[in-house]
Amino acid sequence: MKSQPPIKISVHDFHVFHEQEESLRGISIEVKANRILGIIGPAGAGKTTFLRALNRLNDLAPDMHVEGRVLLDGQDIYHPSFDVVPLRKRVGMLFALPVALPMSIFENVVYGPRLSGVRNRARLNEIVERSLTSAFLWDEVKDRLQMSGLRLSGGQQQRLCLARVLAMEEMEVILLDEPCSGLDPISTAKIEEALTILKARYTIILVTNNTKQAARVADETAFFLSGEMVEYGDTEQIFTVPRDVRTSDYVTGRFG
Amino acid sequence: MILTIIVIVVLIFAWLPLAVIFMVGVAIALPLGVGTAVYLGEYTRETRLTRALRFGTDCLAGIPSIIFGLFGFIFFVVMLKMGWCLLSGGLTLAIMVLPTIIRTSEEAIRSVPNAYREVSFSLGATRWETVLKVVLPNALPGIVTGVMLAIGRSIGETAAVIFTAGSSLRMPNSMFDSVRTMSVHFYILACEGISDEKAYATAAVLIISVLLVNLAAYGMMHHFISRRAR
Predict the structure, then answer these.
(1) Which domains does chain A show, CATH number per domain?
(2) Which pick of A59, B102, B111, B125 has the fewest CB atoms within 10 Å?
(3) How far is CA A15 from the centre of its chain?
(4) Fold adopted by B2-181
(5) Any B CB within 8 A of A82 CB
(6) What is the ipTM, given to two decimal places?
């Protein structure tokens, strides 16, 4: 019997309501540390809502409320006394569309560390080099760090966004919301390669519309459908012997 | 040589009251206006109160300046016993240009893409840090435009100033001295038939001043933008 990795995030009967509509209907899942969890499902299944709930970005939407519990290292992140700012420093997010902030590449990467109070120039330089290297972007931009991040290509911008998340030293969990949906195959491959290396240090949750991508990189896979989690298990099992007929229909491409 | 000195002295006489008055006005209206715009755009949801505030500022923006002048006269000059002075004039101008600054700043803040805010929040920034580091820098050109409109309006302002800053011809020694701005000077010269030539000379200096201020502000704005976009 192989030893089980510790549980990083545990979600109990979690509901999300937007006004009257219930976008997530009772999700329960345990996310293991230092693994990549892939979340697949058709559009409107609640994958993104679930992801955004994990670092409480949904808080920004008006008329939204949640029920149930989300525990990060055993602490309820929706507890009134839980401070959302340090939470977001531990749980980072990569969006579907790469968004470089309109500032230099350097400033983009050190945005998070600067907020945490890192001022030392040498330290910032070191953070920039380390994060850009981990995101496979260093070689392409090392000579033009003062250039605006907006002038990078889409694939480069997405890796810049990844570097920006990696630059934060408190980071423990990385949430990725279809990070490769607008990217070319080479950029996609670079992101995927980065993820498989990064899981040694981080817990990664990857929402993807591309089932093949989940099959390639995820250790575990969850299948979402209309706000419910239909099935959750080892990626190999989900893609070869799914227990639920809806899962098997989806992964074999019969619908969705 | 002597001519240059005379020109400079004359310009200082012409400029100083005007410059101080509109600097007081903008110095008060800018933080207040941008603050209100940040509050409306970032810190509240759309409620009856914000709609009322917005409606109020729109109404204020359309009020003729003579009304502000009379208000400033009653409130600052008489009620607060400040008398005709630079400060009363500046405060009145501040109230007058506030709606313009609020509305243009709010539009500028609104036009900053939401994705930028989300990224900033997702990196653990507080709302205030997001406003300071992402929203305001990106809204800057719009805010500068609003301030330009405000300055343009206050430089040429006569009615709001004549009742609040007075029309003394002396050089002011403090904020509590009465002054005469160029537009008031023009008004008095022309209206009382003292000297048409001097009235139009004043008008020329005034128009050139407006042009210079605008050029300087646009130059500054382009400098900011190009520095950020590098």
Answers:
(1) 7-251 (3.40.50.300)
(2) B111
(3) 19
(4) MetI-like fold (1.10.3720)
(5) no
(6) 0.87
